[in-house]
Amino acid sequence: MERYVQAVDRAAIGETSSGVSGSSHRISANRHDLAAQPPARSRPVASCHAARPRGRFGRDRMLTIHRRSVVLGVLGAAAASSRATAQSPVKWDMYSMVGVTHPITLRYKAFADEVKTATGGKLDIIVRPAGELPFRATEVVKVTGDNQVQLSEGYQGFISGAVPLASIASLPFLVRNGEELEKVWPIIDKYTAVEFKKSGVQTLFHHTWPVQNIFGRGKPIKTVDDFKGRKIRSTDGKQAEMLKQLGASSVSLTTAEVPVAMERGVAEGFITAGFNIIGAKWYEFVQWGWLGDVHIGGPDYTLVNVAAYDKLDADTRAKLDAVAKDYAPRFRAANLGDEAKDLDTLKTKYKVDLFVPPKEQVDALIEKMKPYWEQWASGHGANGVAMLKEIRAALGK
User: What is the C-alpha to C-alpha distance for residues 342 and 37, in angstroms, rounded to an integer?
Assistant: First the structure.
């Protein structure tokens, strides 16, 4: 800026690269102008004094005023530009794995609106529903860590390949409802935070989908033997292992891929919640449901790029954290609260045959899966073993 002002000064006063000759040229020119001037019409001056060369000093004064105006204009423009830059909102993209009208996407948009209001517009989060960005739900840890988006929805089952410990709650029949998830969340967060940081992301907050059960078309599943030979969509390897042990085969599909797979017969059932069947409009191809409460549908991690988060000014970051802390329990409560209503809608409006298995059947399945819990944990090192041990102790399982 200083060099620029100096350049403006030189241009304003007519300074050349050889300052002395430039000055001499101006003086000569001024004398010539003075000689050509008519006698002054004002009061006479004493003969021993020459009239002052008003032309030279008048013009220099005007040049000085002009120079000051230019400099002030430059400084004013720079200050205005600086203020505009400081006031420009930070824009973040957020990936949601479900469609634009799904309750999850709508609740993320409500979260984004609250952040924008709380920060006075300084942080503007644009929620991108499934299909708007060229990413799959299984890729969100990487694309968020690479800053292709700054926020993303990381459902536990879909990110199990990137961060296996993040999906421990999808071990069949281990964490079976929202209350149990809240009880073990501090344990999950403790172990997953370290793993997420390795990929350049961290958890801003978490929510959860309702309890996951099995829905499908064709012959209803009502006994353990009814699982045999069925093709059921799963969201991760742990669900796939359960289906394998029950004699069924698993089909790995993201949420957006399910309708086509059901239409083409690639899958005849899937593990999800009634909440999602209504939200995603899957009721068109659902005829029955087996409600054995396989596991809770969370955590669903809201992941943020660490570098983008750290780059926010302290005030904006604090307000983002405050909104996240306040909004997360409301998000979870809304999702969980919808389940009973949505199951009733499936039963009464869409005539879906919903079957709740007897306690003995579920207890037998829990005992059947316990050895797999230990096998899975051992396959993920000391942290996997310790994490499972702490969760089982917290839940009394």
Answer: 98
